[in-house]
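Following up on my earlier thread - several people asked me to post the actual chain instead of describing it. Fair enough. Here it is, all 269 residues.
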Amino acid sequence: MAKLRALVLAGIGAVSCEWARGADLPPAPSLPPLPPAEAQFSGWYLRGDVGGGVNAAAPQLEIAPAPIAAPAAIPTLSRSLLSPLGMVDVGVGYQPLSWFRADATIEYRGGASLQSGAAAYLGPGPAQDAVSFHADAASFVGLVNGYVAPAAWFGLSPFLGAGVGFADNRLASVSAAAPGWGGHFAGGSRTSIAWAAMAGVDYDLAPSLKLELSYRYLSYGTVTTGGPAGYPGLARPISSRNRLASNDFRLGLIYLIGDPALPPAPNLN
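Reply from S.P.:
Thanks for posting it. Predicted structure:
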């Protein structure tokens, strides 16, 4: 019996020693807190562009009846020219797929002059080459655009795109002159369907910022003036018979909108 009591006491002493040694162990190291999650691209983006356009086709202008010819004469203004212009646009877009995105833009085009050096009158008697014409031209263009970018290399993403929308084309400060006659026309505006085809490349400046360089062919409708000021009998305005078209070169920035960052993970001490 004494031996049994001695063994029990020895076992209790051994367990007590193990507990004591366990109590002396250092605490387990705490895990460092996880860094907050980075903002993820939501699919939405903002864009802005600046650039210039060069007229792709000479405007064909006409006026009837002629200010100095017989009432039956219908003159066609020759040697018409639309000068280069500047443009600026802003827009918002969405990218549902890695290779496809779409946006809507509103654009102002201005600083151009529309002029014609002569008019050939197609009426009774010999043809005349007499009238000169000048006007300031500007446009507001709204487009919905789609872009396909199949792949990216070293931060560069080539793309092709197309757009459709409207153009509100305006002429102001309109004047015409001929031997023995000179006058002003009222300004005028005309809204037409517009369409565009484009190609370019995006470059990643930062995770949420892209630089875009692009070429665009834009067909944006026709123009017209009001009637000649002070000549109520000459009701017909000057207008273009063909659509305006432009070769545009643009530089833009695209800002990717991200979701808010998630809160940091709890400290697991």
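The chain has a mean pLDDT of 80. That should answer part of your original question.
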